[in-house]
Amino acid sequence: MSIQAHGVSWSTAGRLIVDDVSLAITPGETVGLLGPNGSGKSSLLRLLCGLRRATEGVVTFDDAPLEQLSRREIARRLALVEQNATTDADVTVLDVVRLGRTPWRSILSGWHEEDSAAVEQALAQVGMTTRRHQSWHTLSGGERQRVHIARALAQRPQELLLDEPTNHLDIQHQLEILALVRRLSTTCVMALHDLNLAAMFCDQLVLLKEGRLAAAGKPESVLTSQRILEVYGVETVIERSPHHGCLHVHYLPRRDTSTQAPLTPYA
Amino acid sequence: MSLIPARFARTGHRQGLHLGLIVLALAILTLSMALAVSIGEIHIPLITTFKALGNALGVSEYPLDRIHESIIREYRLSRALVAACCGAGLSLCGAILQALLRNPLAEPYVLGISAGASTGAVAIMVLGAGGGAVGLSLGAFLGALGAFAVVLALSRGASSSPNRIILAGVAGSQLFNALTAWVISTSASAEQVRGIMFWLLGNLGGVRWPDVTLALSVVLPGFVICLLFARALDAFTFGQDAAAALGIPVGAVRLILFAITALMTATMVSMVGAIGFVGLVIPHAARFIVGTAHVRLLPASLLIGAIFMVLADIVSRVILPHQSLPIGVVTALVGAPVFALILYRARPPL
């Protein structure tokens, strides 16, 4: 029972962005989506949650094609945390988290105990319970991301998709957000840039190159020097860290001078 | 009753507080309309106004001056009601457009929808096609839809850059104003031109009871439908994709609400001309009082908009002796500085 992509492709303005990707997300796991800029990570996330319609192939939820589900049905099962989503409106933390109950409330239904419980739990999970009345505009980047995650958790989803949740955050807040995501029992799929953080916090990795699946599996099988050279064009040495036991990627300075002008030493 | 921003109000008191605000707003609206009916070339005492209202509603039979009663019934009451409807409708449109387009400057006038409606109405009026109030409304409606289509087409991808829609509105306004000027200069007689120019700036002078019926029958159902979408509008806080991810059928919601906005704007413009900035100023004032949740913002915009327009109509009639200003001049004199203020506050932090 999971989300699966079957040969999914998506193109826009004549450019193929996602090219024949098939994958299955195992429930309960934290999956990292890796790849260079423009490799189709965000687009693949949007295809998985039905915000974009695949030009070829299908996405299925528990074997049901995504197109057969209404937007509301999808939103009850799956939540999305976008990259740096912000607003001009003068809203509070609580206002934002309450938005997560939207798919569970009909046009005329009131606010129920169940809604309050979901909101309270979500606030507690991200540690924002005491700051519920704080204005959105006074929050830092990391806090905003936590509030977005709380909003997504208030949807009570089975799967949570996150598009570069650590973007623009300092290392302390990156670690904090990823540890938070890791602690969740919800299945998580997140686009990430940092290979080392991905290796530390993800059970499975999916590596994309130019819209195609380059590799998928455990970090040990995906993160190899050869593959990183192929996908990113960067030389690396990869070893298991003696400090935290996860894989660690050491990036090596570029040595071949044939494709790049040599650095001119300062006079 | 104090104007406590919604976020400080405790949940227990919230319902009561907002009900109280609505009652207060209704009371102010009634008083403003009574004032609007009393004040004019011929001054009619407030008490006479209320007596005449009682007579009109059939709940009393006070003996009143027949001229007074007929001025109240035939001219001033219908004018005050249409003013209230226009203020309410335009404010509602502003609140909806600001939420859907995620731009604090969005409103029918700024987006050129009023300009499109004017073009349509002027074309009908001058070219004599159709004629009558219904033909005028139809022309305005088609013009408003046309302007809307132009603005949306010009601003495709507005979700990525909300400012594009304002630029598209500027372009659309220029285009439709040019078309209006063209129709006027090539086809209108000198007398028509004078009438049209006055009407383009907003004029409540010509409204009668059929206009009241039309205005009410557009604004009230429009308001109810918009209120049903209050929660969907909240979901647009972080943009279209965020709304879709919260289970909102974004395409359908946008289509329905844009159509209602176009219909309301077109009806108002066809009756009283293009009145600017009401849709801009009022939703911001309403947000200041009741917060950003649309289930409270929409009724607040409706009521404050109605009050504002009735008061603006009074000002337009009394500010110059023996002469009345176009109401659009009054609303623009209030609205343009507010527009500048919002622009100033919305500047990126240094």
From TrEMBL, chain A:
CDD domains, per database record: ABC_Iron-Siderophores_B12_Hemin
Domain ABC transporter: 3-235
Entry keywords, A to Z: ATP-binding, Nucleotide-binding, Transport
Source superkingdom: Bacteria
GO molecular function, one term: ATP hydrolysis activity
Annotated PANTHER family: ABC TRANSPORTER ATP-BINDING PROTEIN, HEMIN IMPORT ATP-BINDING PROTEIN HMUV
Record family assignment: Belongs to the ABC transporter superfamily.
Protein name per Swiss-Prot or TrEMBL: Iron complex transport system ATP-binding protein
From TrEMBL, chain B:
Subcellular location as annotated: Cell membrane
Record's keyword annotation contains Membrane: yes
Superkingdom: Bacteria
Keywords, comma-separated and alphabetical: Cell membrane, Membrane, Transmembrane, Transmembrane helix, Transport
GO cellular component: plasma membrane
SUPFAM superfamilies in the record: ABC transporter involved in vitamin B12 uptake, BtuC
Protein name as it appears in the record: Iron complex transport system permease protein
Species of origin: Kushneria avicenniae
Taxonomic lineage of the native organism: Bacteria, Pseudomonadati, Pseudomonadota, Gammaproteobacteria, Oceanospirillales
